[in-house]
Design goal:
Number of helices: 8
Number of strands: 39
Mean pLDDT: 96
Radius of gyration: 30 Å
Bound molecules: uridine-diphosphate-N-acetylglucosamine, calcium ion
Helix content: 10-25%
Distance between the termini: 101 Å
CATH architecture of the largest domain: Alpha-Beta Complex
Structural class: alpha/beta
CATH class of the largest domain: Alpha Beta
Number of domains: 2
Length: 462
């Protein structure tokens, strides 16, 4: 194989083949979501931010699911049997050797709080020290469950797993983050020496460190300032705790950038969301995916917005929106359900108890109350009366409805698609419109009213 020619020659490996037994889940551990995004995508993003060119992911349990989530962002390497973290990295060794030297970052797929800058700094520290390996560490109040860092002066001599540690080693509070930067020239040699002679009968990656130290090679540590960055997720309690920290970190970023968050303890914003200044997030908002919200919007309580674009000055109140675009100064809600494919221009109103799917609504269109609109094009300044619905589905196929500019749809109209209501046309309240209504005409499709007089005084039966 040819030596790789990526952005800057850096390669990293994410270890993510483990089952995550302690999660007690059918979903692979590294796909458990935090703020709507799978755990491993945080690790991938941190490596990308650290300027890594190529990312190899060692996969096993649920590997094809993980590949599907990460797509082109990583190169998969399979570890069929999970014999330990050292064995996992060994699986990637043939690929690593094609890079012909340099360094290699190794991280675990279950440490989603690690920051990109920290990993960049880890690389820098190794090269500045001229070390064969540098281990990322943190000092924890409760080091339980983590590998302990054993040192002589500044040199790391070993990492001892909790289960293999003696009483004095257990007292050590500096722990292994599970992230390392290795000199590739030494890594292969060290990996080939590993044996499973330990409490768990596994090939520990951490034994690479004691091997290197025993060979007289230099192993250093880089201690993160903020210990929570290294948190590893092994069970759902840790998942919830990590999610909470991420949530606060993300909200703090938005607040410092000019977003008002009324109740940070009850607001969820995903890591990829962008929000403009002077926007207000009211209590209980949940904003996920690649949502972009403009400036000076008000996102009302309990709104749930996923993968949407929302223009400046728009208000969304207690509503759910998925894969939609709304322009500037729109009014959405309360209790509006906008399903994928809705494109609202500026100043559109989608009011209370309105559900829409694949609706294109032009400027100033209003659908103020209690409607279902599906597969529908709504022109400028159209008013859709309360209770109007599109009958877009015949049980087999979906059909379109087109409402021309300035049309007025009377309350409680049924629009049986496919059907067009021309520009400036009207439909009479309560009509079931099955045929096109020409421009500027009135479509009436209902029984005429009959009044039966003196009904109240009709003779009653004995
Ligand atoms: C590991 C470290 C420990 C460190 C901790 C940090 C070892 C032996 N121990 O312990 O020192 O403090 O991480 O969080 O390395 N994996 C594989 N294949 C395997 C086994 C594991 O790919 O055969 C992956 C897992 O999917 C996981 C990562 O490696 O993403 C870490 O494995 P895990 O079992 O969670 O290790 P810890 O016991 O937490
Ligand atoms: Ca772990």
């Amino acid at each position: 194989m040819m030596a790789n020619t990526d952005r800057n020659g850096t390669v990293a490996v994410i270890l993510a083949a483990g089952k995550g037994t302690r999660m007690k889940s059918d979903l692979p551990k590294v796909l458990h979501p935090l703020l709507g995004e799978p755990m491993i995508t945080y690790v991938v993003r941190a490596l990308e931010q650290a300027g890594v060119g190529d990312i190899l992911a060692v996969l096993g349990h649920g590997g094809s699911q993980v590949e599907q989530v990460l797509q082109e962002r990583v190169r998969p390497v399979y570890q069929e049997e999970q014999l330990g973290t050292g064995h996992a990295l060994l699986m990637a060794l043939p690929q690593l050797l094609t890079y012909g030297g340099g360094d290699c970052l190794v991280v675990c797929g279950d440490t989603p709080l690690l920051a990109g800058e920290t990993l960049a700094e880890l690389r820098l520290r190794r090269s500045q020290a001229g070390a064969q390996a540098t281990v990322l560490t943190a000092v924890l109040d409760d080091p339980k469950g983590y590998g302990r860092i054993i040192k002589e002066e500044d040199r790391v001599t070993a990492i001892v797993e909790e289960k293999d540690a003696d009483e004095s080693q257990r007292q050590v509070r500096e722990v292994n983050a599970g992230a390392y930067c290795f000199d590739l020239n030494w890594l292969g040699k060290a990996l080939e020496q590993l044996t499973p002679a330990n409490a768990q009968g596994e090939y520990y990656l951490t034994d690479v460190i004691s091997y290197l130290a025993a060979q007289g090679q230099l192993v250093t540590s880089y201690q993160v300032a903020d210990p929570e960055e290294i948190w590893g997720i092994n069970d759902r309690l840790q998942l919830a705790k990590a999610q909470d920290r991420l949530r606060h970190r993300i909200l703090a970023g938005h607040m410092l950038a000019g977003v008002t968050v009324e109740e940070p303890g009850a607001t969820i914003v995903g890591p990829l969301v962008e929000i403009g200044r002077d926007t207000v997030l009211e209590t209980g908002c949940q904003i996920f995916g690649k949502t972009v919200i403009g400036e000076a919007c008000v996102i009302g309580p309990r709104s749930r917005i996923t993968d949407c674009r929302i223009g400046k000055g728009t208000a969304v109140n207690q509503s759910t929106m998925t894969e939609c675009v709304a322009g500037e100064k729109c009014q959405i809600g309360p209790y509006t359900y906008l399903r994928p494919g809705c494109l609202l221009a500026d100043k559109v109103k989608a009011g209370g108890f309105v559900e829409m799917k694949k609706v294109t609504a032009d400027t100033d269109a209003k659908i103020p109350h209690l409607s279902y609109m599906g597969d529908c094009t709504i022109g400028k300044k159209v008013n859709v009366g309360a209770g109007t619905i599109t009958c877009n589905y015949d049980g087999v196929n979906k059909f379109p409805t087109v409402i021309g500019e300035g049309a007025f749809i009377g309350s409680n109209t049924n629009l049986v698609a496919p059907v067009n209501v021309g520009p400036g046309a009207y439909t009479a309240a309560g009509s079931t419109i099955t045929e096109d209504v020409p421009a500027n005409s009135l479509g009436v499709a209902r029984g005429r009213q009959t009044n039966i007089l003196d009904w109240k005084n009709r003779p009653s039966k004995k």
